[in-house]
Every structure is written in structure tokens, then in C-alpha cells.
Amino acid sequence: MEDLTNAQTGIKEACGVFGIYQFHKGNVFSLIHSGLYALQHRGQEACGIAVSDTEGERGNIRSRKGPGLVSEVFKNSKEEDFCGNLGIGHVRYSTTGASVAENAQPLVLKYAKGTIALAHNGNLVNVSPLREELERAGTVFHTTTDSEVIACLIARERVRSHSVEEAVLKAVSRLNGAYGLVIMSPRKLIGVRDPWGLKPLCLGKLEDAYLLASESCALTSIGAEFVRDIEPGELITITPDGITSKRFTHPMAEKEARCIFEYIYFARLDSTIDGVSVYESRIQSGKALARSHPVDADLVIGVPDSGLTAAKGYSLQSGIPFALAFYKNSYVGRTFIKPTQEERQTAVSLKLNVLASVVAGKRLVLVDDSIVRGTTIAALIQMLKKAGAKEIHVRISSPPFLHPCYFGTDVPSNRQLIASSKTPEEICRSIGADSLGYLDLKDLPSIAGGLPICKACFDADYPMEIS
Ligand code: SF4
Q1: Backbone angles phi, psi at 141, to 5 degrees
Q2: Can you say how many angstroms the Cα of residue 108 is from the centroid of all Cα atoms in its chain?
Q3: Cα of 276 to ligand 1 centre, how many Å?
């Protein structure tokens, strides 16, 4: 479902963040730019970069942000316009706040005690009372994002705190919800991960620079070394004097709850989150599916790209050979994000074409990572049948989507979720499959290496109270 996500299915990640502090001068712009390229899968609506020179004029932050992909927003940007050795970046998909240019990040805020820039991945569930409280105290908001609420809380706390870290800690103690934050003050780079661990954040090193990123793929793809994950409820401060770490708690964070969907779908295959390889977890999900929903078949095939790894796992466990059944046209991109159902269906066949010689006359196990509305999988089944497939047994490497996500994943409303109004048998019939099997809920913890997880979009067991 991966590349089809935005176009067809409607599950979207909130954002990706990146930060870097190069201690002995240097220019971090191009490294942030490359890091954001590696995080582009986490958000394609807008992006931005903010850079400052720690030895230059204090609080002078140069930034550019706007709607579009990294390649579009920074098409005409010159490195010399963004000189600096400290910077942060952001890729955005909007879940809170409209999809408009002013909601792009990083946010740069000038206040009584200086300047900060902030980039946020995630979503708060108590943003309304916080916003109201700040507005009553005279804050004027320029965006509709919850990220600006966080930045304003930090700015307010900074006035009565000894350090920016202290202000950030006071601010995050008020936040209910998901956040991976990178914050830049004139001389510091700060990373914060919510105490539930809902959103990932990790630390890397490249020569004399330390980096923060939503995913390890953004570190390794620019040649940096992955150092470690930021722990749930950890704030780290990076300065030329070294790295300091502070742990914090929250009264509602009784247990950790990493978003299982990072492993199932969002994160890039070459990332590792909290010590668990995303590739391995998808292989495990396929193996678990093969154990719980076996079937007699000739070939296991996957929906490119993210269904392929789970399909490989299904094949390894079942002994049924794995095959590539689709050719993916990588040049069909955002131009084909279509609003209507018919247009979306056409876009599926433009993006994926069936290798008829592989599937003709075969009984197939077709693996995908999720079914949201059922449109994409129905279109693919139709294409496979037209190409001569004899049987199609659909296996989904996640349980049925039944509930909305409040933490920054844009799962459509219940009304649009096919599993909320149809039984698996009815879904099977409506998509035209010969059989349908979902990953069992009980198998979810094992695919995240046994770590505590959030799986609320499948079982409504939210890790905090949702008002
Ligand atoms: S509700 Fe689902 S998508 Fe949202 S954080 Fe929990 S597991 Fe992730």
C-alpha cells in the first residue's frame, strides 16, 4: 500500500523531523535537505528548514518552508543563503491544522528571551484547552497547528525558567498526546519524545556533528552513525559541551505505547525503531499470518511496496514460493492524487500493472498491510483475475481498522473504514477475493519485539483518556 497511500487509501502519517548541530562551524543546510529527502515518506504536503550560525548574531535564524515536496520547495535554494552550523527540518502531512502554507514547519518564534525554532511530529489530544488558556493570556496565534501551541507554551515558560530545557520540560508536562520534537535555541539543539513513546526519535553522529531524526534511515542515508533511540519521556540537549539527558513522566503515561503502525506501515524498511528492525517486524507479521491463516496456493505475492516484505514472511513460513506479480510505475506520483473514487481506481492501474505470465492459472496469496476503504485491493484483485489468476486469497498484515487515531495518523473516520460496517466475510465478497485473513490482534506485540505498543485503531484501547 505504501506508494498508493496518499493516492488511494487515505492513511497518512503526520510528519517527520530532523535536527543537526555541527560543533566546529560548517554548513548543515545540505545535510538537513538530504535528511528530509529520506523522511519524505512521512509527509508530502509541506516541508521546511531553519538554520542558524551559533557564532553569528544571536537568534538570527534563516528559514524557508512551504507546500510541496523537498525537491520542489528547495528547488531554487542556495546553500549560501542558509549558512549555519545548527538547524532543524520538517516534512509535513496535516492532521491538525489546515493544509496551508503558514502551517508548514519549522515554526520560528521570537519572544522576550530570544528565538526558538521547533518542528513537531505527532498530535496532541488536549490542544483546545491549552490554546484557549494561551489566547486568554494574550497569545496571538499565526497558525492552526498544535505545534504552535507547544512553541508558545515553551516561550511562556522560558520567561520564568533558568534554561530553555527547563522551559521545555514545564511545557511538555502539560501535553497529552504524541510528540517527537526537535527544538533549536541560539546555542542548543533539543530533542524530546513523548512519555508513551508513541512517536519515534533517534540520535546519530556524523564526524563532529550530532543529529536527531524521526527515523534511523534519515541518519544512515546521509552517512551518519545511528547512536541510539531517544527513550519515551526523554529530553536530550546537544551543545558543544556534550549531550545531557533528562527523563520526565506524565500522570497519564502509565505505560509506554509505541505506535504499532510505524512497524506495519509508516516507517521505512531500512529503519530500526527502539531496537526493532522494521524489515524484520514485517517479515514476522507475514510469518504470523501464515501460521494463523494458512491456505493451499501456488504463489505468494505482495502489494508493492510495503506488502512485499510481509509477503516474503508468509512465503518463508508457509513454504509457498514468493513471486513479484506487479510492475510498479515509479514515475506516477503526486500528480495522480485524485479526489474521486473512479479516478483513484484508474490511478491504481496506472501505478501498478500485473505481470500476467506470473499469475495466469495460479492460486495466489495476495498480501497487503491494511484495508481501509477496500478500493485499492478490489481494483488489484480485478486486475489479477483479468490476467488469469485462478484463486486470490487475501492476507492482511494488520488487524481490521475499526477506530480513529488521535495521535497524528490520519486514519479516516469510522464511516469510511470498511471493517467498521462489514464483517470479514462481507469484505471478502465485496473485494472479490476467494478468502480473506487478517493478522490476529494477539500477534501484534511480537512483531514489535515484545515492546509495549499502542494498537488502539484496532481495539480502541487508547493509551490515554481521549476527551
Ligand atoms: S491509534 Fe493506531 S495509528 Fe494511532 S498511534 Fe495507536 S497504533 Fe498508531
Answers
A1: -90, 145
A2: 23
A3: 18
Location of each CATH 3.60.20.10 domain in the chain: 3-255
User: 272-297: b or e for each residue (b if 16 or more CB lie within 10 Å)?
Assistant: bbbebbbbbbbbbbbbbbbeebbbeb
CATH 3.40.50.2020 is right for the domain spanning 272-459: yes
Quick one: cell of 50? 531553519
- Check residue 56 and give its pLDDT: 85
* Residue ID of nearest Cα to ligand 1 atom 5: 259
Residue 446 is predicted with a pLDDT of 93
CA distances to 23, 189, 208, 210 from 241, rounded to whole Å, are 9, 12, 12, 12
**CA angle (176 as vertex; 174, 181 as ends), nearest 5:** 80
**For ligand 1, is residue 455 a contact (CB within 6 Å)?**
yes
Ligand 1 touching residue 464 (CB < 6 A): no
Q: Tell me what pLDDT residue 37 has.
A: 97
Q: Give the pLDDT score at 296.
A: 98
Which of 3.40.1580.10, 3.40.50.620, 3.40.630.10, 3.60.20.10 would CATH assign to domain 3-255?
Answer: 3.60.20.10
Atom of ligand 1 nearest to the CA of 411: 3
**Quick check: CB of 121 below 6 Å from ligand 1?**
no
171 near 150, Cβ under 8 Å?
yes
User: pTM of the entire structure?
Assistant: 0.92
Residues of the chain with pLDDT under 50: 1-9, 334-339
d(CA 58, CA 62): 12
- The phi, psi pair for 40, rounded to 5°, reads -55, -30
The CA distance from 88 to 179, in Å, is 16
How many other CB atoms sit within 10 Å of the CB of residue 47? 32
Q: Is 456 in the pocket of ligand 1 (CB under 6 A)?
A: yes
Residues 375, 269: Cα–Cα separation, whole Å: 25
